[in-house]
Amino acid sequence: MTQWLSSQRGAPSTGDDELRMIPRWSMALAIVLFAGIQYIFHGVMPHHKHEMIPLRLIMGYTWGALFASYALLLGYVSRDVKRRGMSAGLWMLVCVVLPGGIGAVVYFMLRQPILSRCPNCSTEIADSYHFCPQCQFQMAPVCGVCHRGVRITDVYCTQCGHDVAEDNAPARLRAYSD
Ligand SMILES: [Zn+2]
Ligand SMILES: [Zn+2]
């Protein structure tokens, strides 16, 4: 027998969740990089032209912000790969080696969907699955006749016209269609 489980599926991640994806080490690295860039622009570079100070401030801030955000991006990628079951080492390398953030762009284009775990048998499951491939645990509502995915607000299947309410879905789902 299969169970209905929509409430436990990963809710769409909010901005807060995404921020929590940035590990401490990358925040620290971002601060160090920003401070380092300021030091290079204001401490190491020659100071004899005073009229250059505004330009120096802007350049220092821009480069500092650029390197700092790159460190945060690396931190994000390092955690993001794990929840997608991708190779962390490979993608960190790609992001570091390909210059100017191109590696990160490639990563965001090629990354796999976020994996969740089957609550019944802990198999890793992509967001698009309706059933667990190992134990048939039902992850999302489907039509009882053609087994294509339906929205929980649908009264009839959009593919075959079957009355979805006849499938003995839980009361919570039937409430939407009544
Ligand atoms: Zn399972
Ligand atoms: Zn159907």
Write up what this structure looks like.
The chain is mainly alpha-helical. It has a domain at 16-112. Helix content is 47%, strand content 3%. It has six helices and two strands; from the N terminus they run H-H-H-H-H-E-E-H. It has a two-stranded antiparallel ribbon. Helix 2 (24-44) packs antiparallel against helix 3, helix 3 (53-83) runs antiparallel to helix 4 (88-97) and helix 4 (88-97) runs antiparallel to helix 5. The chain is elongated. Bound molecules: zinc ion (ZN) (2 copies). The site of one zinc ion (ZN) has 8 residues, from loops.
Q: Give the N-to-C terminal Cα separation.
A: 25 Å
Alpha-beta content class: mainly alpha
Shape: elongated
Written as H for each helix and E for each strand, in order along the chain, the element string is HHHHHEEH
Q: Approximately how much helix is present in the residues?
A: 40-55%
Number of strand segments:
2
Low-confidence residue ranges: 1-12
Q: Write down the Rg.
A: 25 Å
Give the distinct bound molecules.
zinc ion
List the helices and strands and how they pair.
Elements: H1 15-20, H2 24-44, H3 53-83, H4 88-97, H5 102-110, E1 115-117, E2 124-126, H6 171-177
Helix pairs in contact: 2-3, 3-4, 4-5
The structure holds zinc ion (2 copies).
